[in-house]
Amino acid sequence: MMNDSLATILESFNFSEKDIKNGLNCMTPKSFKKDDYFIKAGKTCDWIAFIHSGVVRNYYYSSKGEEITYCLTFPNKFITAYSSFILNKQTFENIHAISNVEAFIICQKDYGKLIDSSTAWLKFSKHFAEQSYVLMEDRLLTLQMESAEKRYSNLVNNYPEYIEHVPLKYIASYLGVTPRHLSRLRKINPR
């Protein structure tokens, strides 16, 4: 069943049946319990995961020792500690399951073989890199250009599942506000 959802996602990238089969053969299903870590800061990330079910967050510690949530990932999305993955260096981030998660993991070595074996996988790799950049740029610009009220309103309107499945302390951190400020924003703009 998990294979079917991943195969459907891969089909949307115009992979051939052979490319999909090769990709699925390189991916290992893995279960994470709530509060398990995919990776902790200081480790080197050598994998990419496809999230089949559950919610994952990426966070780091500020210079004040505060947890800063900067990414939330829902089903049918890929995730990695990208700079660690491409540069083969220790990551600054933690990737944490905030619910039970079912995922497929592909190691860096196998991913490299797929890219070398097929132009479709090479195109996918390019798309993955581009989307990672666009998401980070959008996140940065939103934090710098939009008010907290506007960021919350956009979150509620565009990603209602965040509000339903993510603890409020993580949403507050993601929005760059205190939990108290988030409480005020929720009164102004209730769901």
Describe the structure.
By secondary structure, this protein is an alpha+beta fold. It has a domain at 2-114: Jelly Rolls, CATH 2.60.120.10. The chain contains 9 helices and 8 strands. The strands form 2 sheets. Strands 1-8-3-6 form a 4-stranded antiparallel sheet. Strands 2-7-4-5 form a 4-stranded antiparallel sheet. Strand 4 and strand 5 form a beta hairpin. Helix 4 (108-117) packs across helix 5 (119-145). It is globular. The model has no long low-confidence stretch (mean pLDDT 91).
CATH class division of the domain at 2-114? Mainly Beta
Could you list the spans in which at least 5 consecutive residues all have pLDDT below 50?
none
Q: CATH topology of the domain at 2-114, which one?
A: Jelly Rolls
General form: globular
Largest sheet: 4 strands, antiparallel
User: Strand portion, in percent?
Assistant: 15-25%
Q: In DSSP terms, counting alpha (H) and pi (I) runs of 4 or more, how many helices? A: 9
Cα(first) to Cα(last) distance is 33 Å
Order of helices and strands: HHEEEEEEHEEHHHHHH
Task: Give the C-alpha Rg.
Answer: 18 Å
Total number of beta strands: 8
Strand order of the largest sheet: 1-8-3-6
Q: Under the CATH scheme, which architecture of the domain at 2-114 would be assigned?
A: Sandwich
Structural class: alpha+beta
Calculate the mean pLDDT score and round it: 91
CATH superfamily of the domain at 2-114: Jelly Rolls
**Amount of helix:** 40-55%
